[in-house]
Amino acid sequence: MKVEDIAAAGSVTIAPHETIIQPNQAWLRVDWALLWEYRDLLALLIHREFASKYKQTILGPAWFILQPLMTSIVFTIFFGRVAKVPTDGIPPVLFYLCNQLGWNYLQQNISTGGSIFTSNANLFGKVFFPRLVVPISVVLSNLFACVLQLGSFLVIYLGFMLLVPGTKGLHLTPAALLLPLLFFHTGALSLGVCLWMSSLTAKYRDLNQVMQLLVQLWMFASPVIYPLSNFPVKWRWVAELNPMTAILEAFRLCLLGIGTLTPESLIMSIAGTVVILLTGMLIFQRTERTFIDTV
Amino acid sequence: MDKPIIEVQSLSKLYTLGSIGATSLRESAEMLWAKLRRKPRLNGTQLTARFAPEQVGPVPHSFWALRDISFSVQPGEVIGLIGQNGAGKSTLLKILSRITEPTKGRAVLRGRVASLLEVGTGFHPELSGRDNIYLNGAILGMKHAEISRKFDEIVAFAEVEDFIDTPVKRYSSGMHLRLAFAVAAHLEPEILLVDEVLSVGDATFQKKCLGKMGDVARQGRTVLVVSHNMASILSLCQRAVMLKYGTVDRVGPVQEIVHAYLETSKPEEVVALADRHDREGDGSVRYESISIENADGGSTIRTGSRCKVTIRYKSAKPVRYARFLLTIYDLTHVSMFQLDSEATGGLPDTLPAEGTVVCETDGLGITPGRCYVNLELIRGHQLADRITYAAYFDIEVDDFYGTGKLPKREWTMTVMKHRWKSTPADGAPA
Fold this sequence. Notes:
The complex is a heterodimer of chains A (295) and B (430).
Chain A (H helix, E strand, L loop, with lengths): L1 H8 L8 E4 L10 H6 L1 H15 L9 H20 L9 H22 L2 H4 L1 H4 L8 H31 L15 H25 L3 H15 L14 H5 L2 H14 L6 H28 L5
Chain B lengths: L5 E11 L8 H19 L18 E12 L4 E5 L6 H8 L7 E7 L2 E4 L12 H11 L4 H15 L14 H13 L5 E5 L7 H16 L3 E5 L3 H7 L2 E6 L2 E7 H12 L19 E10 L6 E2 L3 E10 L3 E2 L1 E8 L5 E6 H4 L5 E2 L2 E10 L5 E11 L2 E15 L34
Parallel strand pairs in B: 3-7, 3-8, 5-6, 6-7, 11-19
Antiparallel strand pairs in B: 1-2, 1-4, 8-9, 10-12, 12-17, 13-16, 14-15, 14-18, 18-19
């Protein structure tokens, strides 16, 4: 209002780029316009993440497919064959491969985006740009690997349907069209976690050491190696407090047609994600303002 | 009635020492332990000379790196920011670049800002030169289209045409540096903040950088430069701000401020050589004392005076092939002349272990002003002793030309006797 009044009065011309630097008292103020201005940087950072990861490796981007495939085989042998964990009647390889889609994405995001501040301290100390660009670029660049993984999953899935009898109960549902939303949900959740972890590791470096362990514990608390249906109905709500539970069950429901998903659990997961993301942005913002003073 | 393009209003920055470094529980505990242990030592009698009086006392938990900094810069001005280490230059630049926040006060920047606190920030070794140009440009705030437009120019400036698709990790350090500066040099912000980038690279490269910086300034952009190199500050800037202990000490025309800075930053009184412990070299031969007087033995040295420099040295055994090298500097640390015993010859190959050498000069021909002397003693090819700012002397005015006229130090450093005559067009002497 004020600005418009002054401009209308014609006494002051407002410079197109005016930066005001002062102590920031706002709790949560994301400069979206500035973030948009740096979209080219975002694209280049995604390119950097992607290109630098597998430079000078023999198999290159094939690792995006091979790594989850090998994990699934290991899980099939140890949890499926040896420990005989039930898989809702789904062939174990498909079960684990499907779970890897969601879980791998989260895990990749946290391992590359869980210490944004400490791993970019040199860059952050020398040049200004909206710091939020970095975690967002991590989450988006890992999405490419997800798409590749999804493709390989679908090929193997098709092979199973054609060649292995007893997989008739499995079917792609129209809900599979909702997969982009699920990836978005997982991305938002992991972005929130990355923001939290990055801010915490900036202050307490020791957390870098336990981060892997925490992620592993989280995996065991999520239906990655077992389906939610293994839980007694009475206690399912405890498992559903974990936002990843609904996500993983939804992945299976969409792709394989079997999953334990209730509207309540989905809503809880979405609410949990929103809370983690918003608080993550808040703490990230507080950290970025003066992080460089404590390096 | 232009508004200032940079307006800094009582900007302050408080650093809390407690939070610096205390990044883990273990470190916090260690800091507490160190504090408990230090106490008795400070109160005890074993105060070593290294503890300056002002450092004794309670360890401060916070300090103001900047206090109430205010100044403004007009569009198109090139302004230098000078001050000793710890004066707050870098902190101020970091705040203006938005890398960290001020504790109090505010600053308004009216224009697109780019800051160059280091060249090559964000270079990724695995990516090619091409990719890095785009990445680095984007980090510095350039748009993709803008970089594409200037791409060829950047590559040509960096002289890396043949290696543009090679990963940067295979570049020599020189190529790396050239590429990094080339990207930064092609930024076209309205306000450019620069920190010490000119102190990297070889002399040719520095010259190229300085030239480019001058171009930027001539294009009417506003530049704020932090540097310890007074020569480059003098050649680039019109105005300067001098910071001292986190406050603005003075603001004004660059000549005036640089001279004020150099006056205050030099030791007021040259310490006796015997008390100088900040020497370099292997110490096999050491300078004991130096005295500079005019040829008649008086202490006043004038523009045209012949000088006599007397040096006492000391060594454990007779000295072979000693080279005494005295370099005389002006205020801005530009070398004016050297007295070099090797260049002139005349000293015997072997000198006694302890003794005096005397150097006599012809008339100096140096304009009035202060001169600083750096001493070096080289034995064979080995540096035996080096003392910077070992002594100074003032050159006084005299009637060098016999006309009562003499140029000032700001205009020139040296004078020499010279003659003029005129010749009419027909060629016969007048």
